[in-house]
Amino acid sequence: MNKAQTHQLLARLIDRIATQSSDQADAMMTEDVPDFLSTERAARERQQFFLDTPQVIGFAGQVARPGSFMTATVMDRPILVTRDEQHVLHAMVNACAHRGARVAYGEGVGRRFTCRSHGWTYNARGELLARPKAECFDAPDGGLSLIRLPVSDRSGLVVVGLNPDMPQSRVDQHLVDIESQFSGFGFREMHTLETRRFEVRANWKLVAALSYESYHFATLHRDTVAKWFAPHAVHDFFGAHSRWAFARLGTDQLRDLDRSKWPDTIPGAVSHALFPGTILIGTPTDAQLLRGEPGPTPDTSVVYMTGGYRDPAQLEQSRAGWALGIQAFEGEDLPAAEDSQRGLSAGRTRLLIGRNEPVVQFWHLQWRRALGD
Predict the structure, then answer these.
(1) pTM of the model
(2) Which of 16, 51, 61, 272 could form a disulfide with 232 if both were Cys (CB 3.0 to 4.6 A apart)?
(3) Is the dihedral of CA 276, 277, 281, 287 positive or negative?
């Protein structure tokens, strides 16, 4: 967001804190519990929302330098993203042409990638450079490149298509409706603290919905998030994506200051929800990326949580924010999602979504419409 957009959003937050209120939907809605239990629906979501839809997998800052690379696992598929010496971005299936073993791990700087099993070596474009005992293989080197995937970082985020035949334009345009709101967060300069993987005994939509509302702050997060942030939130929708924001306690004191003295960043957290279920939380100093996806059964999911920081001079502050995020997510959010899944599996027929949960309502309607339900 630019300065004008930031101040406009901040004014709305200040007003909500001052009036002890939040943006609301027009009415309550309900959702059918079978949507969280159905094997048939889970298969459609898996194919349409994840395999056939571009996926956000990281920050552009992770592959900003020539020679840099990052790896990720998306829908159980190993992915390698590189930036070659000519500054060109590439994405490939991280699987050697010999036996399918990974050729790269983690992230960093590397111009060559060598399979640990048999030593086959590839360059940053995925082209095979060398293989021990090449004379034992009839297949020519030129036909043994890594499988290429469409990739883009135009939004400041790394977006990949898991299907090699997905048009590049679709990957480029995936975030076009919301990417203008990313300015000022420094995703192109973001460095990573770490990435954690969680296996969750809950449907992926239950996990995602915890990051769509602040209704649970006062109870579930009373000893963590609620000590620092006000639950009074505002929201906006951008095509298939959404944003909701909440401010630090005491932000309403800015109301007495002239706007020219307001900060250029939101003193709080801005949570972007990106289709189908990625959460991107930005603060003045850092960011967190939560990438949730379906597990092997409708009542399971896998979540990857990446912490990022922009300014090395504020690294300790970013680490503290990351620790708070992990504490709340792993220790509070995920157990709550698993509790909900057990309750829904025990015979409930519908799930209630209140007027005070407008972003949750938006996403359930989005998922329904996308599936044609």
Answers:
(1) 0.94
(2) 16
(3) negative
